[in-house]
Amino acid sequence: MRAADAIWWNNPAPYGPAWNKIAETVVVATDHPEVAEAVCSAGADVVMTSDACTSGTERLAEVARQREFAEYGAFVNVQGDEPFIGRGCVAAAAELVTSGAFELGTAAAHADATIFDVPTIVKVVTGIDGRAMYFSRAPIPFLRDGADARARAPLTLQHIGVYAYTRDALERWMALPPHPLEEIERLEQLRPLAHGLSMGVAVVDERPESGIDTEEDLRRANERWAAFAAGGW
Length: 233
Hints:
Low-confidence stretches: 6-20
Helix content: 25-40%
Strand order of the largest sheet: 1-4-8-5-9
CATH superfamily: Spore Coat Polysaccharide Biosynthesis Protein SpsA, Chain A
Number of strands: 9
Structural class: alpha/beta
Oligomer: single chain
CATH class: Alpha Beta
Shape: globular
Order of helices and strands: EEHEHEHEEEHEHHHEH
Distance between the termini: 23 Å
Number of domains: 1
CATH topology: Spore Coat Polysaccharide Biosynthesis Protein SpsA, Chain A
Largest sheet: 5 strands, mixed
């Protein structure tokens, strides 16, 4: 699946029912002509990027450097493998950055212990101030003693794949070398964490939606999209 990564955020209007109440400008960034054609046929804006991009953040940074986005001070990336992400997640992640609380922002939701057995679900642990401490495909926090299961329950957070950045933090991220943790876990957000950038985690009251990581995920996503196109959900 080629990426369609996008939402550029500058001066957000008050939240409302439409996505354009969250972002000043929305574009889809892709390196694939078929994706671009489908997006254009739906009436949305597309920016073509290099096929050398290895992550959504790299793709977004490439677009952020273009002249038409030079005045934008903050950006939000909704990744192409998260097609059903809730608008509240996008708004919450962006608010962490546009409020000045953090230079990077993302979102998570409370989940039950079943996520610990699924490596395609990314977990996150945070500090008291909401700062991300670590992301992992492994079960974190790890339950060393079964008697602590009740204490772990409110700390069980499923990461939601949306990222917000100040322009400066985005450029600093891009200037950093890959980190072994990022490469081992295959999680790009571990690069800025390992190098000391601060990333806030907005815990939202929304059911975490499944990303598309497997063929089974794709099958379910296609079924859900067909139902949506037919007027259901």
